[in-house]
Amino acid sequence: MGEFAYDPEYDDEPAYIVEIRRQLRRFVAAKMPRAQRIAWDRAHTWDRGLFAEIANLGLIGLLVPEEFGGSGIDISAATAVIEELAQGGPSLAGPYIHAAFYGGMNLTHNGSPAQRRALLPRIVRGELFLSYGLSEPDTGGDLASVQTVAARDGDDIIVNGAKRWCTGADWAGYIYCLVRSGGREARHRNLSFLLVPTDATGVSMQPIEHVNLRYTASMDVHFDDVRLSSDSIVGGPDMWNRGWEQLAGLALDVEKIEVSALAYGFARAALTEAWAYARERAQFGRPIAEHQAIRHKLVAARTKLAACRHMLYHAARVADAGAPCAVETSMAKLFVADTGLEIALACQQVMGAYGLSGEYDIERNVRELLGMPIVGGSSDMQKNNLARLLKL
Hints:
The protein is an alpha+beta fold. Helices cover about 50% and strands about 15% of the residues. The protein contains twelve helices and eleven strands. It has helices spanning about 15-30, 35-45, 50-55, 75-85, 90-110, 115-125, 245, 250-280, 290-320, 325-350, 360-370, 380-390; strands spanning about 65, 70-75, 130-135, 150-155, 155-165, 175-180, 190-195, 205-210, 220-230, 280-285, 285. Strands 4-5-9-8 form a four-stranded antiparallel β-sheet, with no helix packed on it. Strands 3-6-7 form a three-stranded mixed β-sheet. Strands 1-2 form a two-stranded antiparallel ribbon. Strand 4 (about 150-155) and strand 5 form a beta hairpin. Helix 8 packs antiparallel against helix 11 (about 360-370), helix 9 (about 290-320) runs antiparallel to helix 10 and helix 10 (about 325-350) packs antiparallel against helix 11 (about 360-370). The N and C termini lie far apart (about 45 Å).
């Protein structure tokens, strides 16, 4: 397949991000061929050995301070890693998020000193992953209404309830779990985050079938009198009932960036494939790329992709600068997720019947992008967020 993608040498990215892209493009081309991508998708799995190679490149450490084995916080560089890994599907991009973002980013910003010392070096080495425990059977966008309950019992904490859509919980070391730790009437004030070991007594799981992001199963997780020590409170005992502070800050903004990076990566992969296909596929005596209907679809899609890229990396740069970025990240999530799906559907039409075939990547990338306006805060939720943030 040929490449249409922009050359980062002619972009405004620093040289080290350009080098990260070069390394990952060689890696994806050599070690994540199409046949293997299709096999991983059908088996709902990912390759631990290949992920270890990603860890050995130091890429998980892009969101971890040097004192814990990382290279410092660089959201733009980590965003580029997701984008490049997504060219091979979600099979390594997904686990990368579980390690670098769910683990590295959250614990760097919200973990206690003891939690950072104990867990961050393992995360950087690719030995430990976190799964999110945010949604519940009756709780999606309104996270302040979670019903999973954590109660103090002397020096221990007892957890009861259920979480839904805990992607990767069956292989993660901990569930980064939002719980109700006080009266429901207080909503935002009586919430806490816990690190729940997935092998703790009283934790049980059942897989949920889903059509996209099939590098793994998503899980229903049940907590039945799960007993934890107070050390499991994210940030330490002083953060009991202060979980909303941890959720509503940089962590939630960066989650919108990571989901947008996935959406952008899948859209770029879809356009790369359709672009090459249109040059190679001949009908009526010439490549279909020479037919106006096809070339108009492709150049419109490429224009939309360029707009997505500007939106995504602008949000990442604002976050890197430490400036308030809720507006930028919500706009990026809304625009890139919705527009990425438009791009993929146009590319599928370019490829005709082959666009429905499981032997090409486009069918999978359409499935991936169908979910992007839903996961990580739906497009309608982003519109609500933006109306509030912009004081409409």
